[in-house]
Each structure stands twice: as C-alpha cells, then as structure tokens.
Design goal:
By secondary structure, the chain is of the alpha+beta class. The chain has 17 helices and 39 strands. Helix 16 packs antiparallel against helix 17 (745-763).
C-alpha cells in the first residue's frame, strides 16, 4: 500500500503481561557534551513493562501515586459508536480498571488536554462541535472517579484564538489552563478567577507543581527558558529562576531531592530553585531508552523514576521503571563513543537497539551542540562553537570512535586522515557487499581513496529554473548564473534571499576550488572571488528581509514572473510533481552553480557515520554501523527512514511501489468503486497549500518522474560547506565592511585570503 503523506507548507523552507526484564547490560559510562567519557558512580537500571490492551494510549499517560491514568476509545460494532473511558493501570498489582465517561449533555465531545487529581478525578479541556463539525466551543470540565461529569465551564470567549496547551491542578484543587502566553485561573469548583500573562511573544512550554507544592510555569523568552511561579490570588507571576534546562515535556515534575525533574530528550536533570542550578542525573541512553520517545515521566513514591515511551517510527510503546543502582553492581561493556553535533532521534534509536542486543559493546553518544546553552541568537556562532569543540576532540586523545557526519566538513577532515577506510570492513562483511549499495553514493563518500562512510539514506536538493530560459541540460557555472540574473534585473533570482544565503549557494560546491587542503594554498584574492563578492552585494542583508503574511507564495511569484529560481528538496518519488506544476511543464533541474559547470545536485545524507582512525574499538564500531545499515523495514514493510535508501534492493522496491497501481478493496477483497463504477486507485490524496491559496494535490507519480529522480541520484554529491562552517563564517564576517561601503572589494578579498589561509594552515 502506498504511504500517503500529509504536507503543509507555510512560506518558506525549506496482556497485562509483564515483560519485565532487568537490563543488567548497562555500562557505567555516560554521555558527555564534548568531554571525556566519565565513569559514573550510579546508573539507573530499567525494568520494562507493557500493558496488554490494544486500546491503551501511551501518548498522554499520567502518573498519579502508583498508578498510570490514560484515556481509551472502544468501538462497538453493533451500535457503530465509540465509547470513551478513563483507564487506571496499577503499578502495584498490574491490574487495569476502565471507567466509561458520562457527559451531562449530548454532543460531539472531543476531550484532549487532561489532568488527574489524587482521588482519581479528571479535569480536561473539551471541544464540542456542531453537527457538521464546522464550528466548536471550548469547555473546562471535571469528572469524578466514576466517570460522571461534575461541571462544565464555557471557555470559548476566554481562550479566543489561543491554542490551549496544558492543564494542571494544585494541592488546593485549583485549576490552571495554559495557552500561548496566558494562564487562565479557575477555583476548585471551576469558576473563573482571572488570568496571568507572561507577555506577548513569549510561549509557555511547561506547567506543574514543584516539590514545594507551588505551581510553576516554564516559558520561552527570546530563546531562553524562564522558570516562574504563579501567584493565584495575586493573578501574576512571581519570581523568575535562571539556568532552567530546556525540557521537552509539557508538565513540570517534582524532583527527588530538589524541586524539579527535567528531561531534554537526552538527559534527565534535577533543578534546584534556591541555587538556580541544574544537576545531571543520567542520560536516557545509559538506561536503554531513546529520550526523544519519552512521552511522560515522573517520580514514584519508592524513589524509582517512571518513563512512558512511544516510538512513532515503529509504533512500539513501553513503560520503564528505573532503579538507581551502583555502577559497580552492573556488568561492564566496552564503550564505543559516537561524536555527533546534533545527537538526534535516529542515532539514539540505533544505539538503544544495539545496546540491548550486544553482549560486548555499548554505544555512548557525545553531543557537541547543547540546546540549553543557546540563547536563541547568533546561530552561526552557536554552530561554530559546537564544531570547534568536536574538532578539538578529534585532534586529541579524546577522539570519538565514530563520527556522525551531519554538519561536518568531510573533505577537510579527510585531508587530515581522520577517517578509517570502511572498504576493508565492507569487503570482509558477511552481511553486505559493495554491490548492494548505490555506486554513486559509495564514490561520493570515497575521498583520497578512502571510503569514509556508507550513508543509510539520503535526500537531494537542487535548483530548478524555467527550461526555456536556463536550458534543459543540468549544470551551469557561477558566471552563467550571474549572466542570467543580469538578463532579468527587475526579477528576484530567488525568493527573498539574503547575502548570506546567496553566498552559501555559491560556496557549497565551490569553496574547495579556492582552497587546497593538502597544501594549504588559498585563492580568495582572485578576480573570480571578487566577482562573487560583487554579485552577492546585490542582495539584501538578512535584517532587511521581512516576512509578510499577505505576500504571495514562492510558487505564485514564479508563475507570475516575479521570481526566477526555486530550491527543490527531493525526499521521495512524489516531490518533483509539484515543481513541475510550479514551472507548468517547463522545469529544468539545472542545479547549484559550480566553477566547472558540472551539475550541482546536493546529496544530503541521513545517518552517515564514519569510524575514526584513532578509534580503539574499530571492530565494535563497524559492528554497529553494519547492524545499522542492515536494519529491517518497519512493521508495514516500508523503508523506515526519511529519504531514499542507499541499499539498491530497498530503493528498487520503493521505486516499484511508487508506480504500482493498487485499488482500494472492501472487507471481501473486492475493489471499491467510485460514482462512475470505476475502481478507486490508491495513492495521492495528500496536498500542499500556501497562505495565499496556491495549492497542489499529489497524484501517483509517473514512470518518467521516477526515472528523473533516479537520474538525479546518479549525479548528486555531498556538500562540503554548510551554515556555521568556519570558512563561510570568515567570508561573511570580513565581507560585511564591503557590503556596507566601508572597504573596497580588493581590501576585503585580501583580508579573507589572509584569514582563511591561516585557518587552513592550522587545520589541514
């Protein structure tokens, strides 16, 4: 069956069975941020529990005392109606109690945000729809522990257009409802008692009681996480507390010894209000959990920590009960450190799976970009800092065993001899061979004769123009691009791009034509580079670009002749349909300009890992990479990653599936017919829409479109430079005086040449 995606584009961008098994395979090592992997005195050992109930909902499961509460929906085939219930799962005796909800009035009730009191009562925000679901009203309601609706309070006018995000109950039964930048206050009987605002432009992220019993909120202010308590009677926020971690849960949890437990998708902290400091307790990975999948967590009365996880990729769910254990009591494994700028969900999932199944090794992830340390400003400096810290480790005795190549200058690192040649490991493998992978991808990741990585999957990005103007052949030079812009002086080249963006477009494939990393020679004081500076100076500064919700969408601008070129991100066989529609059958995939005129189609690898030449665990590192490359598809038989697979067998299956005509069938296996008596074809049904009304509805791709995508794969190459790279940082920084008219192009080119030559000399 074809997988149907839902696309939404704004303007730009781009059994009651206890399956408990004590996981005594935990290593006493941790996940550090750019530092030595430390030995830890304590680890948190998980016991995994599952609930055998096909209707169990792990999404908003909440811990109250020693029980988990959640909502369930049961479909009655006889009445053709759905029954909504509240379920209570006891962690003490592993029993489940289901209590149907009884509304005081009939209607189309949709209860979403909920909170539970210690007596089993439930508070929630309900949207009640009219008969055709075209309009709705918003209500605060309370149910007792028997499922009876106690009261209903209309909140429709109160919340207006705000998005209601969470609800919390304090020790006195008073109710706090948050949405956007507001907290609406209600007494224990559901009566309105006013509201509190944290100010326009601020966004409330979390809410809940601390260990002191007070109600707190965490909100974002200029990119920073701010913790504040709420004064219910005074209808205002109280003091604010600094250094609060940027958690990814919508509920604040009381801590063990300190005020709060907080988790950020990677680590779990305790935060102390008095000292305004956070202390790391453990990393999720050390407890064989992907922190990105943690839906809720909290502290049990016996001191254990409970975590509810839901894997949106595999639909696997679990409950983990974590017990604090001396590391010396846990059998040790040999640690393989993965260095990663981002340390995302994919690498954590792979690490968890490997760690659970491997008796000898375990993966530890060392992240170099700490979101908690970013103030929301100067993203380039934030990126550069992470890259610099990673580079410092790579050149020291603290080098990771594996590098996640996302965001790294692989040519620069390859010139330093950082990477182990994976060719020898691949040739000896009993699971995969060279012939199993796309040859172009292997060639793209072979630098100086060394196969540095085999990506698991990839997507592509290229530039598209009108074929009647730029030509049908792929590839053009920077001079060609400049000439094309000169021929259309009153038309935007790209839609609302800044100087920095244009410089990035020009440098992603061309910066290395000005640098020889092996010799250290640079050529940024040439007429060729000065021409690039002069061209870039035509474009506006970043702060001059303002987003206007009334502005036309990029597709509309292209069709009206206001914009010439379009950046296309291709991650499945459907995507180029829309691009062909934008250019009304005249799309040419010309690509990013290159100095030699070759096709600049960007190959953006997903999950590309390399073994470092300094690694002392190379066999174990390859074992991890090999297992990752050969992992199974998802439960529906679909490729379980974003983008295209590099394994040819999986790619062929995806291409065949894309154009395979299948029909919807009924319960007897017979085709479902449309109004004309024709079988209804699967595929399509998703659409893209912009704020100005421009829309496109996807259909099944044609074989010609699939062939075009395959041809782009043959020429696509990984890029060396990206936002945050130091070379680009130097160029943008030193070119600024020229853009402002303070220095000549010759002066800034000379300074750029000098600084980059020094940088290359220090890093080659």
């Amino acid at each position: 069956m074809k997988h149907t995606k839902k696309r939404t584009i704004c303007r730009r961008v781009l059994t009651l069975a206890l399956t408990a098994a004590m996981a005594f395979s935990l290593a006493a090592c941790g996940n550090s941020s750019g530092g030595e992997t430390e030995k830890k005195e304590w680890v948190w050992v998980p016991e995994f529990v599952t609930i055998e109930d096909e209707n169990v909902s792990y999404y908003d499961m909440q811990l109250v005392g020693d029980a988990l509460y959640y909502q369930s929906y049961d479909w009655d085939e006889d009445t053709q109606e759905s029954t909504q219930s509240v379920c209570k799962y006891s962690l003490a005796d592993k029993s489940t109690t289901k209590t149907p909800l009884h509304y005081s009035e009939e209607g189309n009730w949709n209860l979403n945000r909920t909170a539970f009191g210690p007596d089993g009562s439930m508070y929630g925000i309900a949207n009640v729809y009219n008969e055709d679901y075209s309009e709705s009203e918003t209500f605060l309601c309370k149910f007792d522990d028997q499922g009876n609706q106690i009261y209903v309070e209309d909140m429709t006018d109160l919340v207006a257009d705000s998005y209601v995000d969470s609800i919390a109950i304090d020790g006195e039964g008073r109710i706090y409802v948050s949405g956007d930048s507001n907290i609406w206050l209600f007494d224990a009987d559901g009566n309105k008692r006013g509201s509190v605002s944290v100010g326009d432009g601020n966004w409330i992220r979390s809410m809940g009681s601390g260990k002191d019993g007070k109600m707190y909120i965490c909100y974002y202010n200029n990119g920073n996480s701010v913790l504040s308590d709420i004064d219910f009677d005074g209808k205002k926020t109280g003091g604010t507390y600094e250094n609060f971690p940027s958690g990814n849960s919508d509920r604040l949890k009381p801590g063990i010894d300190k005020d709060f437990l907080v988790q950020d998708g990677s680590k779990v902290y305790e935060y102390d209000v008095k000292s305004q400091k956070a202390e790391e307790l453990f990393t999720w990975l050390d407890s064989d959990i992907n922190g990105n999948y943690v839906q809720s967590f909290g502290l049990l009365e016996d001191g254990r920590i409970l975590a509810v996880t839901s894997d949106w990729e595999t639909n696997e769910n679990s409950i983990a009960l974590l017990t604090k254990t001396k590391a010396s009591e846990v059998p040790q494994k040999e640690t393989i450190v993965v260095g990663s700028l981002y340390g995302g969900s994919d690498i954590q999932s792979a690490a968890v799976k490997f760690n659970k199944s491997n008796d000898k090794y375990r993966i530890s992830i060392r992240g170099y970009l700490d979101f908690n340390s970013w103030n929301g400003e100067d993203y380039e400096a934030y990126m550069a800092d992470g890259i610099n810290r990673m580079n410092n480790d790579i050149t020291s005795s603290n080098c990771p065993d594996i590098l996640d190549l996302s965001g790294l200058n692989i040519k620069q690192l390859a010139a330093k001899g950082v990477f182990e040649d994976l060719g020898a490991y691949l040739d000896k493998s009993e699971k995969v061979s060279r012939e199993d992978f796309l040859q172009n991808v292997l060639e793209a990741y072979t630098l100086n004769g060394t196969l540095i990585s085999i990506p698991y999957s990839f997507q592509m990005q290229t530039v598209v123009g009108k074929g009647s103007e730029v030509g049908k052949e792929m590839g053009w030079t920077i001079d060609d691009l400049i000439a094309y812009a000169d021929a259309h002086p009153d038309t935007q080249l790209f839609d609302n791009v800044s100087k920095e963006q244009i410089m990035l477009y020009l440098m992603v494939y061309n910066a290395d034509s000005f640098i020889d990393w092996s010799t250290g020679e640079c050529n940024f004081d040439t007429d060729e580079f000065k021409s690039i500076l002069n061209f870039v100076n035509r474009f506006p500064d970043q702060d001059e670009i303002k987003w206007d919700e009334d502005d036309l969408s990029t597709p509309n601008k292209i069709q009206k002749g206001q914009v010439l070129l379009y950046e296309e991100n291709i991650y499945d066989f459907d995507e180029i349909q829309m691009c062909n529609e934008i250019f009304q059958g005249d799309a040419s995939y010309i690509g990013y300009p290159t100095t030699d005129g070759s096709a600049g189609c960007m190959l953006a690898a997903n999950q590309a890992y390399a073994i470092t030449s300094k690694s002392k665990q190379k066999d174990g590192a390859w074992e991890f990479i090999e297992e990752f490359l050969t992992r199974e598809d998802d439960s529906n038989g679909r490729f379980n990653s974003f983008g295209f697979p590099t394994l040819k067998s999986k790619l062929s299956a995806m291409a065949e599936e894309a154009v395979k005509v299948q029909y919807y069938t009924d319960e007897n296996g017979e085709p479902v017919l449309d109004d004309n008596g024709e079988p209804i074809v699967m595929g399509g049904g998703s659409s893209v829409s912009y704020q100005d009304g421009w829309t496109y509805e996807y259909r099944m791709p044609t074989q010609e479109e699939v062939d075009l995508v395959m041809s782009l794969m043959e020429i696509a190459k990984p890029v060396t430079y990206s936002q945050g790279d130091e070379v680009l940082n130097i160029i943008n920084e030193e070119a600024a005086p020229f853009y402002k008219g303070q220095k000549s192009v010759d002066e800034v080119a000379s300074v750029i040449q000098s600084r980059i030559k020094i940088y290359v000399g220090e890093n080659k």
